[in-house]
Write a structure and sequence with these properties.
With about 100 residues, this protein is α+β, with helices and mostly antiparallel strands. It has three helices and four strands. It has helices spanning about 15-30, 45-60, 85-95; strands spanning about 1-10, 35, 40-45, 65-75. A four-stranded antiparallel beta sheet has the order 2-3-1-4, with helices on one face. Helix 1 (about 15-30) packs antiparallel against helix 2 (about 45-60). The longest helix is centred in the middle third of the chain and has 16 residues, at about 45-60.
Length: about 100
């Protein structure tokens, strides 16, 4: 499964980069395949391991902010691996001249 999520602290002002970095650090240290862009972090793995990482990422932000917003989208396809790469490669293949 692939989960794309964003976690943001609320009530801490406009500069939330250090809080978001705390969450991304948890994801990167998990060892699961992941990517971070301007809006979301995507992580790939089995349901329980991915959700555990999301929970710990939220907890990392919550440790410094009393309120946290979580947006999550999941692509649940049992048996599919390397979706983070293969889905993008498929689109790129269709874009190639």
């Amino acid at each position: 499964m692939i989960v794309a999520f964003s976690v943001s602290p609320l009530g801490v002002g406009e500069d939330v980069g250090s809080h978001v970095a705390d969450a991304v650090r948890v994801v990167r240290e998990s060892g699961l395949p992941n990517r971070t862009d301007a809006m979301f972090t995507s992580i790939e793995g089995e349901w329980d391991e991915v959700m555990d990482v999301v929970k710990r990422a939220v907890a990392a932000v919550e440790a410094r902010a009393g309120r946290v917003s979580l947006v999550l989208k999941a692509d649940i396809r049992p048996g599919v691996t390397d979706g983070l790469t293969s889905k993008v490669e498929t689109v790129e293949r269709h874009l190639a001249p």
